[in-house]
Amino acid sequence: MTATAATPAAPVRPATVRPAPHPFRSELLRGSAPWAGVAVTVTLAIALAGKAAQWQGSWGETQALLHTATALLGGPLAAATGCWQGGRERRRRTDGLRASAARGELAQFLTASLPTALWVVAGQLLATAGALVATWPYTSAGRPFLSPVLVDAALLVAMTLLGHVVGRLVAWRAAAPALAVCCYILLAAPSYTMSGARHLSPASADFTGEMVAVWWQPVAATAWTGGLAAAAVLAHTARRRFAALVPLTAAALAAVLITQAGDDMWRDHPLSHRQVCDTSERPHICVNALHAGLLPEVDSALGDFHGRLQGVENLPVRFEDLRADSKHGDAELPTLTPLGWSVVRGRLTDPESYAWQAAAAITAIHDPCGARGEDARALRVDMAVTDWLGRGAGRPTDDQDASQALRDAADRAARARLDAVPDDERRDWLSRYFATVHSCDPKDVPAL
Fold this sequence. Notes:
Blueprint (H helix, E strand, L loop, with lengths): L22 H7 L3 H17 L2 H4 L3 H28 L1 H5 L2 H5 L5 H31 L11 H23 L5 H14 L22 E3 L3 H21 L7 H17 L4 E3 L6 E4 L5 E5 L6 H7 L1 H6 L9 E3 L9 E3 L10 E2 L2 E2 L2 H12 L13 H15 L11 H19 L2 H12 L14
Parallel strand pairs: 4-5, 5-6
Antiparallel strand pairs: 1-2, 3-4, 7-8
């Protein structure tokens, strides 16, 4: 028999030991932190969608409403999610295990709280991006600013960390919703006061879409909210508790600066003092440069209005979207703001009504003297000219009574007489009428 050689055994490879994932990564990808980001996004999206007509079309109004919604709704929600996360070990009865861990108290705190804060900020940024994309097709001037977004993100991080501290200290399952209610009240209540302390609430910042922050306002706001959160975290976790005095001092200094500055933290948007004008017709049409894209819309609404004024003299030089000065031949353009009333998503909601308001702006229907309006004949002439220019479509109507019906009938008759006059004679008569618009003597009004 022939012997066969034995096959050598394969070498045994040592089992590869995969390193355990860092606790921060686990906290970031699992648990309640991702759901906190989803909750913030949904909350802000619902709040913004309910008032879309008021902000779509203006970068400033979009960011102003985003800031208010983030502070008033996102802030309490961030505090509640942080509080729920902070009480997790107590609910699981693993707080003793956490206390025996090798990492320091501050490192454990940040590992558990920062993932929730990051997801909350991610939810806020997603909602912000969605709002800016939604308003972009309807804007025509200006640009969004980065500083309000960063200030809001810092606020949400601070609220999350503060909530986490409360969750660790308060052994109550309902602490999270109770904290959210308390934060909402604390953030909203200062809006109803007139003291300088109201500016300490991020939700009560007195600014609109036509205002921008001065350079130091974002720094002060972040130091105020971030300083309070950092002081609370260090007082709860640091080995040397007096280290909390450093951020607390920074927060106190920021609070003094914010309280003393008040409304001076905001300034007018540079474009808000400029206008863009169409000088092809008289009166010229000027709209605020912040809403330059509305000029074609206004031109279209006043097309027939300008057509009826062809050849008429003594007209105002232009419609002003700033402060009109009648001594220099200006008339006030019917209001375009706030958005959501006359204008929605870059379109006039009622062009005929807008044309009637423009006609009323250049006639004496809004008599500054008072005496002219007391004369029935002069008032009827003013109303007839206004209705004829604006087609009467946007004339305000109240509940009708017998006397009002008679006055309306007389106004319609006067308008019919004006409409029946030959074009050349009507132009001459209108020229004489507009020469008396600023006269307080009703006898100066030409007969119709």
